[in-house]
Amino acid sequence: MCWLSRSGQDGEKILHLRSASHEPWRPYTAFGKYIEPDYQIPGGSKGFATYQKLLKAGWTLLPSNPPQ
After folding, report:
1. Over the stretch 21-54, which tens digit does the pLDDT of each residue have?
2. Could you tell me how far CA 11 lies from the centroid of its own chain?
3. d(Cα 54, Cα 34) in Å, to the nearest integer?
4. % of residues, the chain, pLDDT over 70
């Protein structure tokens, strides 16, 4: 799991997932079997409910800007 900008720039970050390290990151909405409905909180992070579920299930959060 990783929080990445939706547009690839410095925009609003949403949860992105990949099921293997060689796969590209895709928005969490592309993973229907893992999605939890987003919380209805104004300004809330898109994918936070899914993040909480997957974190509990043992998924790992990776930094969006890994060290070079």
Report:
1. 899 999 999 999 999 999 999 888 899 999 999 9
2. 14
3. 8
4. 90
Strands 13-17 and 26-27: antiparallel
Instruction: Supply the DSSP string of 4-55, one letter for each residue.
Output: EETTSSSS-EEEEE-SSTTSPPEEGGG-TTT--PPP--TTPPTTHHHHHHHH
Spatial distance between the Cα atoms of 50 and 57, rounded to a whole number of angstroms: 11
CA distances from 11 to 3, 7, 43, 58 (A): 11, 7, 13, 28
Residue 68 has pLDDT above 60, yes or no: no
Q: Which two tokens stand for residue 9?
A: 């720039």
